[in-house]
Amino acid sequence: MSRLFWLVAAPVIFLFLWSTGFGIAKLGLIHAEPLTLLALRYVLVLVILLPMAAIVRPPLPATPRAWVDIAVTGFLIQVVYFGLCYVAFKSGTSAGVVAIVVCLQPILVALIAPHFVGERTGARGWVGLALGLGGAALVIMSREKFATEGVFGLICAGLALLGITGGTLWEKRFGVTHHPITSNLIQYAVGAAFCLPLAALTERFEVSWSGQFTLVLAYLVIGNSLLAMTLLLAMIRAGAVARVSALFYLVPPLTALFARPLLGEVMPPMGWAGMALAALGVALVSRS
């Protein structure tokens, strides 16, 4: 029963935390620049994890290679993916265009997985991946007015796509089960080590502190950084990587859904149709 609960609850909790995080982060960018926000987020995660590690004393990676594998996954997701998505937003690239580029991740994973981790996607899976991509695109197009995008922002979004794809596949092939405190501590230390100096070099490192910004940081640190990332890495290790990646098709529709109470943005009927299509696609991919 506990395993059945885990299989059902983990994707639901992950999707809720990951999807709401985009709207929450958008609120945070009102008060701080992108890399500054990421650096603060990662440093606060470390402030929480270091005392926990001292008390719990979780086992450390047994070999130097295990340390490197955790650090590589952290760099690809925390620095490349999140960092470049935020830089793309800062350059003027619309959220819709970035979301469409990043939504190619399940397709890219399905293409690379047979060669990198030995997992193949069947005909039902490819149909589901196509439906998921179409549904996510419908949601995005229903809410965004597309304009001419800067080449720099598009390059950043493309590299961010490679970051989340590479992190997912690297974790699946080389990742082993570690204590969540150990994995998160190493990965967010890597994130902070890169984002702090980059923020100091490229931004003014100024923050407009307020009650809202404090709540935003609390959610990003606890909900997105600690809980959502722990669930994502655990699901990658426990299941087929293409099925886990297919969950990302539901992120744009759910982000649009949660944007209404958070940002007052209303989803039109075409967006609801896209959400249903994306859900159908994920159901096909996830069905064993």
Apparent shape: globular
Order of helices and strands: HHHHHHHHHHHH
* Structural class by secondary-structure content: mainly alpha
Radius of gyration, taken over Cα atoms and rounded to an integer in Å: 18 Å
Compute the number of helices.
12
Domain unit count: 1
Describe the structure using short key phrases.
288 residues; 0% strand; mainly alpha; globular; 12 helices
Give a nutshell description of this structure:
By secondary structure, the chain is an all-alpha fold. It has twelve helices and no strands.
Structure in words:
The chain is an all-alpha fold and 288 residues long. It has one domain (11-286). The chain has helices spanning 2-28, 34-56, 64-90, 95-102, 105-116, 123-143, 151-174, 180-202, 211-238, 241-246, 251-263, 269-286. The two termini are 18 Å apart. The mean pLDDT is 78.
Q: Helices, strands, pairings?
A:
Elements: H1 2-28, H2 34-56, H3 64-90, H4 95-102, H5 105-116, H6 123-143, H7 151-174, H8 180-202, H9 211-238, H10 241-246, H11 251-263, H12 269-286
Helix pairs in contact: 1-9, 1-11, 2-8, 2-9, 3-7, 3-8, 4-6, 4-7, 5-7, 6-11, 6-12
